[in-house]
Amino acid sequence: MLVERQPSLFYSMVAISIVLALFIAIIPIAPGYRVLRPELVCLLVIYWVISAPQHLGVTFAFIVGFCQDLLEQVSWGGHALALALVAYICLNSYQRIKSYSLWHQTLWVSVLIGLHQVAVNWVQSLAGYHAPMPALLASIVISSLLWPVVLIGLRRFRQRFRLI
């Protein structure tokens, strides 16, 4: 039996998840706890690009990153460049990443998030911002630990509603 896919519901789910992640990214947090905020937008871009590379790609990641730059009121292009770079790597290796076990994927995602952090902080350093190394490492570790939850949760949601 042929399973009918629902592209409009798929794109709605992508948009809703990204908007929620952007909202979480701008929620005010006490300065001492900011290092514990995961890079949820980056995790979702990685997930969606790996899950549907024929529908979402570098342009999608760039637009999401630019929206994040605007919402966080940081130097324009930092998140856009970083997410586009991460999406490009994901597009070139999505078959390999999908074949890895969950823990190997988590390690791969930690490398991608680290690359994202380096690119964002490089662009922001041109504007005079300097992030301390422990904050960057904490964000990478927390985001990597969140990857299995994002992967399993969104995969189950997609299977339940028969999305692309």
Task: Describe this protein's structure.
The chain is an all-alpha fold. It has one domain (7-27, 37-160). It has six helices and no strands. α2 (40-51) packs across α4 (78-99) and α3 (58-72) packs across α4. It is globular and about 45 Å long.
List keywords for this structure.
164 residues; mainly alpha; 6 helices; globular
Q: Name the overall outline.
A: globular
Count of distinct structural domains: 1
**Helix share of residues?**
over 70%
User: How many helix segments?
Assistant: 6
Structural class: mainly alpha
Please summarize the sheet with the most strands: none
Strand coverage percent? under 5%
Number of strands: 0
Cα distance spanning the termini? 16 Å
Q: SSE string, helix = H, strand = E?
A: HHHHHH
What's the pLDDT, averaged over the residues? 91
Topology record:
Blueprint: H1 7-26, H2 40-51, H3 58-72, H4 78-99, H5 102-125, H6 133-160
Summarize, please:
The protein has 164 residues and is mostly helical. The protein has helices spanning 7-26, 40-51, 58-72, 78-99, 102-125, 133-160.
